[in-house]
Amino acid sequence: MRRYFGRKLLIYGLTFFVAVTINWLIPRFMPGDPVQSLIARANIAQPEVVEAMRVRYEGLFGFDMPIWQQYFNFWGALLDGDLGVSIWLFPTPVADVITRAVPYTLGLLIPAILLSWVAGNRFGAFAARRKWLDNTALPIGYVLTATPYMWLAILLAWALGIIAGIFPVAGAYSYAMQPGWSWEFIGSLLQHWFLPFASLFLVAFGGWAIGMRNMIIYELEADYVNYLRALGAPGRLIRRYAFRNAILPQITGLALQLGVLVAGALVTEIVFSYPGLGNLILQAIQNQDFFLLQGTFLFIVMGVLIANFVIDIVYVLVDPRTRAGMGGAS
Amino acid sequence: MSLTVTDLRVYYRTLRGDVKALDGVTFTVADGEIMGLAGESGSGKSTLGKSLIRLDGRMRHVGGTVELDGDELPIGDDARMDAFRFHRVSVIPQYSMSALNPTRKIGKMVAELMASRGVRLEPAELERRLDLVGLSREVLDRYPMELSGGMKQRVVMVISTLLNPSLLIADEVTSALDVSSQKAVAGTLLQLRDAGLVTSMIVVTHDISLVYQIADTIMVMYAGRLAEKAPAGVLVTEPRHPYTKMLISALPEVGVRYEEDSRLSGIPGSPPPLLDPPGGCRFRDRCPIAFDRCAEQPPFVEIGPGHSVACWKAGE
């Protein structure tokens, strides 16, 4: 058990290192000069002032150092918990900018991932038992799961927001309101939350439902099911066993899908101008904000790795075969 | 009479028509009898075994009746058959190695299965039966993957016979095992009958030499029909049906040296297609003693005590 988790942790550590390095590299490959745009914002004409500002900013962001030193400084600062200063929202620290956006992204992602997984699996298992439901649910599931997140998001915004006028299509709450803990504000939050949530939920739901339906049909053909049937066991017991076994690959699937879901959430946020991490990434790219981009990616990488680790643990709990594999079968 | 099967017909549905895998089979199995059911692959022996407990999706009950201890088994009606399964008829499947749910501990699975059938299980009784087949009680606390193939097979034997069925069908139970395990499994089957846990038994196999050691009677099938049924000793020493004779002569004997030029004889040819079988005796194309009358199906008639043969020349 300890060796298993030790090995897993090592792999996760290595992945983290590589991912963070790539995150550091990517913004630096972007064309353009962030300091230049920062100076341009100040609208100053005198060359000597511009030069002074350039020196000051480059010193502040560390761009005057050789690239390898910038890299080591980055790791040093990261281990201190310092993500740098945002260029776009200068001089707000990146950590603050991200902290403000994270609740919105998590508020979208966690319910969308968990609810779509639970509901999709239940529905898929249910559909596998009924011919007419299977024949109607399956094509719908395929259409849903093949839909790109942002396209469904645009469709939903158009149909339910613009045509029907039921839901607002931009922002996380009404622009006329001040954030607070009033019922009115929470209502507005939920109203704005619904469409981005629904677009994430529906796409993921279709995928899980199809996966589960196929797994259940496969399990119901398994030898242990035939044996139980030959002993006259009621359908309820057989379906419970089949579900329990069919859910195992779905758990692995969840681990694999997490990254895709996170990416989907980012695009969806942009469609709905939802002030989460996705929006931050868009702003960071548009403003050549290296530090904000790095910080946001770092957060996403950490989120996906932690979620995968949790799934690893869950898998060990639900599948006895992994447990035996760890200790060497006795 | 424990089991009476009368003119049983079970066909497989295919796109090209019905495959007549079981085409009019009539026989009885007495209380306490262990009947070996032998035949080559495609002879219908497994279809017969399955028909008595659960038809799979492609099988269709076309005609004939099965009576167990005076009650007719509704073999064509999956839902009504449930009442008989496990309680009165039980099975040790061919796939014992994978017959247990991999994600449940064996003890828990047994408890859930019994509860689902509304039976109260005495833990002491379960333990007694584990002792009988030589399994330690710890297996109940194990997952199937933690057991060896032979252990899984014995667990399945215990589970299948927990409710003391009148009829147990053992379907190719020894096929996947090495010879020493085969002998142990055969011994266990005998024990189950002798301990009174099972009234009678049908042991489906292609291995006559193995079933000969435990069976009271042996029934040989060919191409969906019965060829011969006789007490085990009689069938092996004095077979009357030409197919049985050739089958027995194809078996090697211990202690007999075969000269290099007298190799064991096989049976030339292959069984007829069952999709559209020829009329008359189905063995006649391969039969060395076939004559004109074989174009007519010979009846399965008793020619001696407990000895029935379907051959026009059996009486000669």
Notes on the structure:
The complex is a heterodimer of chains A (330) and B (316). Chain A is mainly α and 330 residues long. Chain A has a domain at 99-319: Orthogonal Bundle (MetI-like fold), CATH 1.10.3720.10. Chain A contains 13 helices and no strands. Chain A has helices at 2-29, 34-42, 47-61, 67-79, 94-127, 131-146, 149-163, 183-219, 223-230, 235-271, 277-286, 290-318, 320-327. In chain A, helix 5 (94-127) packs antiparallel against helix 10 (235-271), helix 6 crosses helix 8 and helix 12 (290-318) packs across helix 13. The longest helix of chain A is centred in the middle third of the chain and has 37 residues, at 183-219. Chain B is of the alpha/beta class and 316 residues long. Chain B has two domains: 3-88 and 167-178 and 199-253 and 263-309, P-loop containing nucleotide triphosphate hydrolases (Rossmann fold, 3-Layer(aba) Sandwich); 96-164, no CATH class. Classes of the chains: A mainly alpha (330), B alpha/beta (316). Chains A and B meet through helix 9, helix 10 and helix 13 of A and helix 3 and helix 5 of B.
Strand fraction of chain A equals under 5%
Largest sheet data of chain B: 8 strands, mixed
The helicity of chain B comes to: 25-40%
Secondary-structure content class of chain B:
alpha/beta
> And the CATH topology of the domain at 99-319 in chain A?
MetI-like fold
Q: Determine and state the CATH class of the largest domain in chain B.
A: Alpha Beta
Secondary-structure content class of chain A = mainly alpha
Low-pLDDT segments of chain A: none
Number of helices of chain B: 9
Distance between the termini of chain B: 30 Å
Order of helices and strands of chain B: EEEHEEHEHHHEHEHEEHHEE
Determine the mean pLDDT of chain A: 84
CATH-scheme architecture of the domain at 99-319 in chain A: Orthogonal Bundle
* Major pleated sheet of chain A: none
Number of strands of chain A: 0
Radius of gyration of chain A: 25 Å
Low-confidence stretches of chain B: none
Q: What is the spatial order of strands in the main beta sheet of chain B? A: 6-7-8-3-9-10-12-11
CATH superfamily annotation of the largest domain in chain B: P-loop containing nucleotide triphosphate hydrolases
